[in-house]
Design goal:
Layout lengths: L2 E6 L5 H10 L4 E5 L10 E6 L25 E4 L1 H9 L3 E18 L13 E13 L5 E6 L6 E4 L4 E4 L11 H12 L7 H16 L3 E6 L3 H14 L3 E7 L7 H11 L4 E5 L1 H7 L6 H21 L4 E5 L4 H6 L19 H4 L3 E3 L7 H10 L4 H4 L19 H20 L8 E15 L2 E14 L7 E2 L4 H14 L3 E6 L13
Parallel strand pairs: 1-2, 1-3, 3-4, 4-9, 10-11, 10-13, 11-12, 13-14, 16-18
Antiparallel strand pairs: 5-6, 5-7, 7-8, 8-9, 15-16, 16-17
Helix pairs in contact: 4-5, 4-11, 5-11
The structure holds xanthosine-5'-monophosphate.
Amino acid sequence: MEKIIIINNGSQYTQLIARKLREFNVYCEILPWNQAIEVTNDIKGIILSGSQYSINDPNAPTPNLDDFIGKVPILAICFGAQYIAKYYGGEFIENLTSECGNAKLKYIDNSSPIFKNIYPPKIVFITHSDTIVKIPKHFKIICSTDNEEIAGFQISKNKIYGLLFHPEHPQTEISDDIFRNFLAVCKVSYDWTPNIFIEKKINEIKEIVGNDEVIIGLSGGVDSTVTAILIQKAIGNRLHGFFIDTGLLRKNEFEDVLNSYKKMGINVKGIDAKDIFLSRLKGIIDPEEKRKIIGMTFIEIFENEAKKIKNVRWLAQGTIYTDVIESGSVNGLSKTIKSHHNVGGLPDKLNLKLLEPIRMLFKDEVRKIGSVLGIPLDILNRHPFPGPGLAVRILGEVTYEKVKLLQDVDDIYISMLKENNFYDKIWQAFAVLLPVKTVGISGDERSYDYAIAIRAINSIDGMTANAFDLPFDFLNKLANEITSKVNGVNRIVYDLSPKPPATIEWE
Ligand code: XMP
C-alpha cells in the first residue's frame, strides 16, 4: 500500500499530522526519528515533524536525512524545517522568548506547489524559539510573517518544503490546503478507505493464522469488537472469544453485550465470574491493589479457558494506534505510559503470538470500519470503560450492595444522557460512588446516605480532558431523578476538574 512516512521528532502534534493524512484517505505511518528508513517504491513522501527540542539542544533528535533526501518529496515542519536548514548550513538566532500562537503570513509565494491556490494574508500557528536568519543560496523563501522573513522555504531540486509554522494545527487556517498540495506533489494513492482496509486485513489474517485457533478477551467496547469481527470474517469459529462478567460491569451489560456478540456471529463464551472477583476484593480499599487483584483474576480465568481449546497459537487484542504511540515505540524519545489493552503477560505465559489487526488505526477509524462491518451503534459509540470497571468508581471497599447502587445510578445517568442527546457529544461519562455519607432529609426523617459524583468530559484521546458543559437544568433533573429513585443516595455533585491535574477516573 502506498504511504507517507512521518518521522517523529517528538512533537506533541505528530498525531495530528497522521490524522490529517488519513482524512484524505492516505495511509501513513509514524516512525521514530532514530529508525533507519529505506525508501521503497510504496513510500511516496516523507514528513519531518516538529520537536520539543530547540535546534541547538545537544539532546535534539538527529534523523538521518541522507536516507531519503532527493528520493521522495519532503515536507519539513517547524523543528524539521530548521533541521534541514541547519543540515545545509543555515544560520539561526535563539529568541529570548519562544513564539507560540497565531501569526499572519503576509507573503506567500503561490508559484510554490505547496502554496498552490493559497493567497495571503493567512493565519497560521507557530511555536518555536529559534529563528532562521540565513539560508543557503539554493533555498527559496516561500512565505514570511510580520516577524519572520524566513517562515518557509523550498529546495526545488529535491522537492523539499520547509514550514516554520504548524500546518497540522487546527488554528492554521490553510491546514487542509497545504496537505492537499503536498499529497499532490507526492502523487500518492488515496486508497486508505474502510472497505479496502477490511479486505486487506481479512486476507492478511487468513494468511498469517493459517489453520491455527485464536483467542480473544472481549470487553463490550468498540476496539475488541471490531478486532473480533475482522478475525471472525477471516477464520470463522476458529476465533474463540471470552466475555467475562467481573460483576463490575454496568447494569445488564453482560447479558446485553453477550446477546449482541451472538447476533453478530462471534463465537463467544460468557463466563460468570462475579463471585470470584467480588470475594477477592473484600476489604480492599487501595485502588492499585484493586487493579492488581482484578487484573490477576482476569488472567487466571482467561488462562483456564484458553487451556481448554486445542491448537491455540494466537492471542488477539484490540490494540489501537494511540496505544502503540503511547507505549513509546514510535516517538524514539520516551518509553512507558500504559497498555490498558494488554492482558498482562498472557502471550508469554501461554506461549502465544499476538494478533493485533487494528493497531495502525485511530479510534475514529476503528468506528468507521466498525460501521462498515455492521456493528450495532450502541457498541460503536460506547464510551470507553475501564478494565477494572465499577471497582475504580466505588471509592473504598467494593461490595455487592455498592455495585448494585452504582449500577442503578449509572443507568439513570447514561439513559438520561441518551434521551437528551448528550451521550454522543461526550467523550466519557460516568458516576462515582464516594466513600462519604452526608446528612439529608427523607420525608420527615433525617437521612444519612451516600454522595455521588457525576462526571462528563470532553477529550480527544483520554490524555487530557475538560469537564463537559452539561446544562444546569439537566443536572438538576438528574439529581432529582437519582435521589428519588435510588435508595441510599441523598447528595449529587458535579465534577468540574480538568485532566491534568485530575485524572478522568477518581481512582
Ligand atoms: P485516567 O483516569 O487515567 O483515564 O485519566 C484515562 C482513560 O483510561 C481509562 N482507564 C482505564 N482503562 N484500565 C483500563 O482499561 C484501567 O485501569 C484504567 N484506568 C483508567 C479511563 O476510563 C479513561 O478512559
